[in-house]
Design a protein that fits this description.
Radius of gyration: 25 Å
Helix content: 40-55%
Strand order of the largest sheet: 1-2
Order of helices and strands: HHHHEHEHHHHHHHH
Strand content: under 5%
Number of domains: 3
Bound molecules: zinc ion
Shape: elongated
Oligomer: single chain
Length: 311
């Protein structure tokens, strides 16, 4: 069935999401998005934006009303990611580009909905989270960017091994209470960056990352064994690595105590304080412009000296 073309048809922006364009078409034609969906034969309920939302669509009617081809309309939808364990595409706006949104009110671009998108592909500005957080360190941000690149590559190459590793990392975060399975597209900026940073550690040094997290935290290791009985061998390997770390870095745990959160925290803060001090001294000795590797080597040497011999 063919219908008359809509009287007003603002063209879609480059990479505009279908629901965003339908919203703008409705506004231009002085009706609600729901009324327009009825006219276009898209049914009731949520305005379609995923490719699987268009399964029952009368394409002849839709194409003639908006004067676009089936291919053009399908290209404006989000992929069907339901078969992926890693939730890399969001059905909600968790970030946007202030520049593009100001220029075209009501605009949402497709790539803003992907977990790995950090900058607007149209104008190059940094995307802004729904709930931005002040004071996020440059280091966390840089690590999150590397994590986002790893995630993008894993999905683009359909790299099952890497995707499984990312999935495990998110499960680990969920068990430890530092995130959840939807954190990669969280509206909270800090939560999302933490998850992306964990993807970076999880894909580059998966076991070491887990070992560092689990140091002095036996409760979490037990919880992991309970939740992932099928990964018992890997968890035991991680536990062995944490014990090895404790043996190699005994100075980190001078406050010998049965393991527990308090001990864990004080160990960690003492360690990071002395490491920071060592780094400062290395910089003062070798200068800010020194080779990064040389600085690290020097800081490591200072850090390993017994206490009271830091000069
Ligand atoms: Zn933009």
């Amino acid at each position: 069935m063919t219908v008359r073309p809509l009287p007003f048809r603002p063209p879609p922006s480059h990479d505009e999401l279908l629901s965003s364009w339908i919203g703008r078409l409705a506004k231009a034609n002085h009706c609600s998005a729901e009324e327009l969906c009825g006219y276009l034969g898209l049914g009731q309920g949520r305005v379609p934006e995923r490719i699987n939302d268009l399964g029952q669509v009368d394409w002849v009617r839709l194409c003639s009303a908006v004067q676009r081809t089936r291919h053009e309309i399908a290209a404006m939808t989000l992929p069907d990611a339901t078969h992926h364990a890693v939730r890399y595409v969001s059905l909600h706006c968790f970030q946007h580009c202030p520049g593009c949104a100001e220029q075209t009110p009501g605009l949402t671009l497709r790539h803003w909905r992907f977990a790995w998108s950090m900058t607007c592909e149209t104008c190059g500005q940094a995307l802004v989270a729904k709930y931005p957080v002040k004071g996020i360190s440059g280091r966390l941000r840089a690590r999150a960017v590397r994590g986002s690149e790893a995630l993008r590559a894993a999905v683009a190459n359909n790299d099952h091994r890497r995707l499984r590793r990312i999935d495990l990392t998110l499960h680990l975060m969920t068990v430890l209470g530092t995130g959840h399975l939807g954190s990669l597209t969280s509206k909270n900026e800090h939560e999302r960056l933490l998850a992306l940073a964990a993807v970076n550690v999880g894909t580059t040094h998966p076991l070491l990352g887990a070992a560092i997290i689990l140091r002095g935290n036996d409760g979490a290791a037990q919880e992991l064994r309970r939740v992932f009985p099928q990964h018992r061998r890997v968890i035991e390997r991680i536990r062995a690595m944490t014990q090895d770390l404790d043996r190699r870095l005994p100075e980190l745990c001078e406050i010998a105590h049965p393991t527990g959160h308090e001990t864990y925290r004080s160990c960690r803060s003492n360690a990071s304080e002395s490491a920071l001090q060592a780094a400062r001294q290395a910089i003062s000795e070798l200068g800010h412009d020194a080779n990064r590797h040389a600085l690290l080597m020097r800081a490591d040497t200072i850090w390993r000296r017994p206490d009271g011999d830091k000069s």
